Fold this protein.
Amino acid sequence: MKKSVKMWWITTLLFTIVSYIFLIRIRHNSWYIFLGILILYLGVNYIVFLGTALGITGYFFQVVLNKEQTAISFYEKALKHNTKSGYALAAYGLILLKEGQNEKALSLFEKLHMIDPSIMIEKIAYTNKAVCLWKMNKIDEAIETLNKMNEKFDYISASTYTTLGFLYLLKKEYDKALEYTNKALEDTPNHGPALDNMGQIYFYQNDLKQAEKYFKKALEEKSTMVDSKYYLGLTYEKQGKIDLAKEYFKKAYESNVNAFSTITFEQVKEKYNQYF
């Protein structure tokens, strides 16, 4: 938690305690006076820190009440008032990323670095910034972003190593792709996306037996992975096992393709239309 946020909570707690002692214990005022003063204090704080307050309100609607559209309206207002809420910026950035608004999402993740976020939020900023850059076809910048993250923090998650491995795979630097994917699997041996990475690395080097092995393992660990279904279909197609290829192309078509998928819905649809 940021120092400024901690100080706000400490100040609010002290204000509440002092107000209670003075109004209730010493002056023997009614509870509604104490509550009125407390609400007034919180209201003034809401106005003074309006951008951050709006961002936190949006985050509440999204996470607690599961009302994403309402949350978005608060996030937009928060941005107009220069919000400093790391949770709001990270959450709204992710929504935009999932909607394919990569440039706008990127600007929010870059802003996160400027507000002195917590370690967790800063790691999210680095990772999702890299994903935005990848989706914008700025592969070298995406790799540079994750390498900076790697240098800054002692611990990097399997997901980050997997992403870095995939980015090197896109550049056809298979040795580095393998290096980082292995690091992901050393950290989390059953990490589905890392197993899918391994499958793609072998697939693009035409080692179809190893590719098939890893795609199957990936689906054993995470059965929803559209990437592995699609590539398993391609692997069987190359092997001449057309019935199996059709089976997995159909499974891929029936699965969800999202912003973090390594393939597009257009790729999946093309193969589905080819056989069905």
User: Anything to note?
Assistant: The first helix runs from residue 3 to 26. Residues 1-84 form one domain. The chain has a mean pLDDT of 91. The chain has three domains: 1-84, 85-155, 172-275.
